Every structure is written in C-alpha cells, then in structure tokens.
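Continuing the series of single-chain predictions for the mutant panel. This is the parent chain; the variants come on the following pages.
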Amino acid sequence: MMKSTWKNYLENALLVGNVLLLFLLLFEKNIELPNWFQPIGRMHPLLLHFPIVLLFLSLILVFFRFKSGFFAQEDFQSFASNLHLISCLSAALTALMGLFLSFEDGYEADSIFWHKYTGAALIFLSSGIYWIKNQTWFSRKTAQISGIVTLLLLIIASHLGASITHGENFILASFYEKNQEPVPFEEATIFEDLIEPVFDKKCISCHNSRKAKGELILSSVSSMLKGGKNGPLFVAGHPETSTLLDRIFLPLEEKEHMPPSGKTQLTADEKTLFRLWIQKNAPINVKLNALPANDSISVIGRKMLDKETKVIKYDFKKADPDKVGKLNNANRVINPLARDSPALEVSYYNSKAFQSEDLTELLEIKEQVISLHLNKIPVTDSDLKTISKFQNLNRLNLNFSQISSAGLANLTNLKNLKSLSLAGIKLKKEDLVSFLSRNTTITSISVWNSDLDQAKINELKKQFALVEFINGRKGLDDLYIQLNSPFIANKSNIFKDSLVLELAHAIKDIDIRYAFDNSQIDSLKSSQYKPGKIVLKESKQIKTRAFKKGWLGSETTVLKVYQNKYEPDTVYLLSKLNRVHPANGAQTFFDKQLGTFNANSPAWANNWAGFQVNDMELLIYYKKPVLASKISFNLLIEPETAIFAPGIIEIWGGSNENNLKLLSSIKPKQPTKDGKPYIELIDCSFKPFSGNYFKIIAKPLKPIPDWHPAKRRTALFLVDELFVN
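Parent structure:
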C-alpha cells in the first residue's frame, strides 16, 4: 500500500512536470522569471547526465519487456516500470531547469531552438510510453519502435546540447582537426593562423552563436569586432584599455579571469601574442612574412607554427630507453625529436673518433631515427649502405663528408627522406638527376660549395621544380654547432657552511669560463674553471660559458648556489596557500627542491608555493637559539602572468612565539615593464639577533602597477625556498 501511494505521488509529479513544461514552451515569450530561479536553471548541466543514463536503461528494458522469460516475471516488470517512472520524472525536472537556464542572457534563441524542442519531445514521448505501456494494444513491435525513436531523440538532444556548451560539431571536431595541414610561415596571416586558432581552441566553447556568454561571439571577425555586452573586446592600438587583455591577465582565482578556471589556459606566448597584436592595431589580413624577421609577433608566430608542423604522430613505438642510453656517448648524442615523441635525432661530433661501426650500432634503433647529422664526419659511400636501412629517415646532413657523387645511389631506398645536405661534396649533375628522379620525396637539398655552377643548378631547378636547391650559406647554421651550457655538478646547490663548486659539461675536454660580476664571458680573458679551486662560503651567482675548438661557444648561463646556515627544527605554516600552487605545504620552504620558470618542467608545477588571497605567515622554530642576521626569499618573477615579488616582507623574532619583535621590514623592488621570467633572491637583513622563533610575514603586492593589464588587482607571489643565515 505504501509503495503504491508513493508511486501515485511520483506519477502525479510526472504529469505536473509535463504540463508545466508544455505551458512554459507555449508561453515562454510572455514569462519573466525572478532572479532566484537562476541557481535552479544553472543546475541543468550538473544533473542532466543522471536522467540520460536512467532513460537509456529504461528504454532498453521497454525494448525487451516482451521477450520470453521477462514478460511473465512480475519482479522484472515492476522494476522496469519503477525505473521508467523515475527516469521520466528526473528527465522532466532537468528539462525544466534547462528551460529556466535558457531565459538567461548569452543564449541566442536560434542556437538553442532545436536542443530545447528535441529535449521536450523526448520528455513527452518517454512519459507517453510510460502511460500507455500497460495498454492491451501496446505490442512488442510498438515497444521496439517507440524505444528506438526515443533513443534517437535522446542522442540528438544530447548532441545539440554538447554543441552549445563545447562549440559546434564538438563530437566530430577532432576528425577535422587531424586533416588540417600545418600552414607554412610564408603563407600564414597574423589573425587567421595565429589569433583565430587560439579563439577556436580556448574561447569558442563559451562564445559561439549557440552559447554567447556576455553576448560575445568569437566565431567570425564581424562578431568579434562587435564585442559583447561590456563593449568592444579590445581597442586597437591600446592594449592598456582592452577588455580582452584585462581578462586573460587576471589571476586564475579571479571570477572574471578568462578562460575560466578548469578550462585550458592560454600559454605565455599566446598572451603575449594577443597584447602585441592589439598594440599593432589588431591587423586582420597582414601576413607574418610582411613583418621584420626580428619583430616579436614574427618570432612568436614562427615558434607557434613550427610547433604545429613538428608535432607529427609516428606509428612506430619508442625505443628502449636503456638501449638509447647505452648508445649515447661523448661523440654521438641521441635525443627525442620532441617531448613524448618516439622519433629520435642523432648527431655525431668527433670526426677523429668516428668509425663505420658507430653507424652499424644505430641499427638497433633504426626504426626510430628520423634525423641524422653527420656534418664534417668522414662518412664514405659504404657507410651510405648502412644509412639506407634507416627507413624512416627524414633529414640527413652529409655536409663536408667523404662520400662521392655516385654514392648517392645507395640512398634510393629512403622513401621518407625530405631534406638532404650535401655542402662541400663534389657533385655531378647527372648523379643528382638520377638520385632525385628516384627519390621523389626530397623537398630540400643543399648543394653549396659542390662544384656545380649556377647554370647547372638552374637546370636542376627547372627539371625538379618542387625541390628547393640551396646554393648559399642558408641552411648551414649547423656547420658549427653551439655547445650546451655548463651545469653545477654538486649533489645540491644548497649548502650549510661552505661549498667546493663543481662545474661540468656533457661533452669532454670543455673549457669553462666564469665570473662572479657582470663582466662579459669570453674564451681568453675570463677566469678558467679548475676543479677544486672555487670554495664558496655564502650565496653566490656565477656567470658561465663553455668553449671548445670547432664549436660555437655556449650561451652565457647564470648558475646559483645558496647558503642556508640554520635549518629549522620545525616549520609552521599559519596561513593558507594559493589553491593552484600548494607545493609541499609547510615543508616547501626548506626542502631543498628549487623551482624553475619552465612551465613544461615538473619543478614549475610542484615546487612553487603561492600566495595571493592570503598573506604568507610562516613560523620557524629552533630548539637551540641561533644568531641570525638575514633571511632570504627565492622568488619567481613573471610580470606577464601577474606574478610579482611580495609588496611587503616583515621578519619578527624572539625566544617566545607569543612575544616577538619586528627585526626587519622591506618593500622589494618591482618590475616596471613586461619581460622574461626570472628567479630572484631577495635578502631581508637585520641586526644580528639570537632567538628560537622567527616569524616571516609576506604580503602580496596590491595593487598591481598601472602599466600592467591586470592593474588594480592583487598580484600572486611564488616562493620555493627560504635561507636563514
């Protein structure tokens, strides 16, 4: 009796839900809902998956209810009926929420028309099936047809809903993306090939013709220029007053930050690109190659387009890491072509040490090698037979090797070879014609300093119009390969009392030069590093460069070592960390794990502790009093993403945690313009003080300076280590 009473209540609720849904659909133009209905409507995307699953299951049961073995089972029929009732009722409630949501701004009537009415039809049809399924004329065939029709309506309504929330044709979009060819730099335009793809990937799901949050639509140039309910999206030539930049440079925790937290965020290059584009008056049809080569947009654009073209998916597996490790040595370096890519790039360096067996050994990973650099290596024609076995080879550099013109015939089996460098090789035109006639995949070939005169090269260009013949020094940048930078070889670059500095390099017999001041590092005048000779007794930064005959010197690199004389016995974090940068909680500040400013490095994501909403309040305790005179902060500064130094830092000390006195208060120097990210050590010095407790208070910069797009907001600051000396 109790069950039937509750079932009657639910059936009446289902009837009321259908009538209310029909009423709202018929008279929606004359209805204005109060604001307190908004939270109800916004629960639609939260709850809709539940009735979808229930409807799907109940329709399957309807479809099979007449199957022998099921029809006569009272328990099965009762369960199927109850499930159908609950699914119809929950679907009706969700549909009502969706209808309430559609009354909000940002949803064009035309864009949600079909989703709304297919959804309503789904409710009416599934409810109707529930009411009539026990009629005598409701046959097996009727059940199957109605189940199939309802299921189709469910799929269509769900697809249309996904198009509203995630962009048009969301489900099949990935198939179209795979077929798009990367755009060459020479043909790319600033807006169509750089700006618009960012909108499509990271903004269009909320700003399209079906779902226009803030009345902003980014699916066409005209709608983008029109702007939204807050006015124009940007002011050409004035990045400082553009809404677009204001929103994307806001801290992630801010409600108005775009894209919203939880969505894929813009990279630093993309943010910079938007700012530069607006600064240049937001051109629409200007090509990238019309800009100077050193123009910032041109540099970023080439980087972004190169990244697209280089991210190639290969159908072969990764090589065994242990095997690659054993093949790596001082004369042969093997690196993955890109992060997570199975493709490998191999470079040889020492011509005197080279032997043919060095190439034969590579056959263990012949499937993965797609780039082979043998510049100035004494490779012969017989070695080319070995190279011909690298079937996936895409790029081959044989500049100034010992091969002959006729020896190129050994490479005709390389069906994937596109780029071939033959500078310094004595070439014959007929041999090249024979080779290129068979290797139709070649798109670029370097023939500089090859005994071919310009007339013969012109004939080759005419005969092979699709091949680029390089007859100058263009493309020969790798004749001299630049060295990597030196690195600190000590187990840790954080020490207590003193450190014997160990500098090292991946290549043997490297000349490392260094300086502790701002002088330029060269291979003659700068101090030469000698193992065991540099003893440090305080935090230092060392400028270094690596040199070796026949190589380009490395970039100047600043290496840092840090002294932490007094490591606390206990660390108490008294305030709450930023939720995006929790790092390792209270342990972060003395765990000897330094962060980086490379967003692809785990050290970036895991080692920085962030503060923005709350001040940093840290209490450190020593069982025995320590005599300290300085506490240093290791901070990441990245102005373009609104990461600044703290606005104020205070150091308190005492022998009792409840009776501390102020030892130091400083206002760190802040950046005055955008620039590359950097790590800075900020010292808070004070008169020598002996105590058991030290309290560190750091307050986020507030407000961000007026020159920054996120002005008037509160800055984020990131710290990875503290040093007490």
